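Holo prediction — adenosine-5'-triphosphate.
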Amino acid sequence: MLSPTPVADGTEIIVAAAHLPLSVQFEAIELRVLAGPDAGQEISLGLPSVRIGTASDNDLLLTDRAISRRHAEIRMTPDGLLLRDLGSTNGTFINDVRITEAYIPEHAECRLGYTRLSIRQHTEERKVAVPRQDHLGELVGASERMRELYGLIRAVAPTPTTVHLHGESGAGKESVARTLHGLSSRRGPLVVFDASVTDPEMVRNDLFGHIKGAFTGATGSREGAFRQANNGTLFIDEIGELPLDLQPRLLRVLETREVIPIGSDKPLRVDVRVITATHRDLESMVKDGTFRADLFYRLSVVPIELPALREIAEDIPLIAHHLCERLQLNSRISDTAMAALQNYAWPGNVRELRNVLERAAVMCGEREIQPDDLRLPKELAPSKGNAPAATPLAIPPTIPVASTPKPSAAAARAQLKEIERRMIVDALERNQNNKAAVARELGIPLSTLKRRLKEYQIGEED
Ligand SMILES: Nc1ncnc2c1ncn2[C@@H]1O[C@H](COP(=O)(O)OP(=O)(O)OP(=O)(O)O)[C@@H](O)[C@H]1O
């Protein structure tokens, strides 16, 4: 049972709930200057690594003249805080022993130049307040699951922490990423990157960037997703598909907050908040050896599980009305059709609901949508106890047979084509013209998408 505790800003803290962690652990590196010219300075940073030195781009900026411009770096690792000297003139010491790289023991004192530091990892557990609201950012839903999700998003959004989203296809992972970015007050853009692109070289070049001449055919340089997302958020979708040999490179960027473009040896500093997502079980991929454990640890600092649509069936009317409004569909959904929507298993989740509503609206015109207009596959209804594979339904290749009054076949075909064209244009925009991502979002093979692009004369066909 829930026991809500109201707090001042109209939210409530729900003490017992089954689905999401209702507290979030934030890890931070805490630094205190004990002695030296900057004695008394204290800083706590929720970042995977922290730089110390006298140059202005350091996280801990010191004025000690015996300290180098870029003197040392501290990294959070699964085994504790790792202190690394960055080639300083006067060295880095732990308990007066000079080190090049060493874990910092508990209660140890670190020394750089004349400066003595206490460095420790700090874990803060924050309770998540569950708001009484039926939407947040791009998300709609008033169920307990959705409100818990809003609470988590609101708690995590303002922090720089890495977030990992897990949920079925079409369940709203990208929408959560957009909402997190929107509430984060990060000035830079949100860049969406799809790691499921089949060509591993393309993934590598597009993610990390490359310099001119890095490989045969690299006639120009490419910035790469990390640098495009500088000061903003990088959403890496389908992280489970990231080739094994690229995983250490991604880990390195996350740990050092520096990216080295392909073909270059010059690391470039980036300030990027990373959100990853997958429908796959990364933990079992780690066990199978197809996903690196250290990368999994770094990514899942805050794991968020998204409910499948069938798990929040009570939200279907709200989401359906929201989609009709967003897509400017004028058809009203009858009560019986709404009940059918609530009883269906939705393997393609909200994306499938959107497609079904768009199709039904075309078929019905001004008429109220009835259950038959939805053309839901019978074998997936009712949903109770029925957990189908998470394969999104494709846009139907044929014109469904309409019930009366029906538009002429030619008119229906034209309407359907117009909807399909609009869906493709919108999806291209959302996915920065990434065709593989568009094909996946729409649930159609890439070859079909390419044919449609040609047919509708959208963009340049390759
Ligand atoms: N709770 C929600 N409220 C409103 N719209 C939603 C919600 N969840 C998803 N959507 C909509 O459903 C569609 C699919 O969502 P989204 O692209 O975020 O899913 P996804 O989990 O990232 O899918 P994939 O795994 O295939 O990339 C989008 O149009 C999105 O706006």
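READOUT: Residues 23-125 form a domain with the Tumour Suppressor Smad4 fold (CATH 2.60.200.20).
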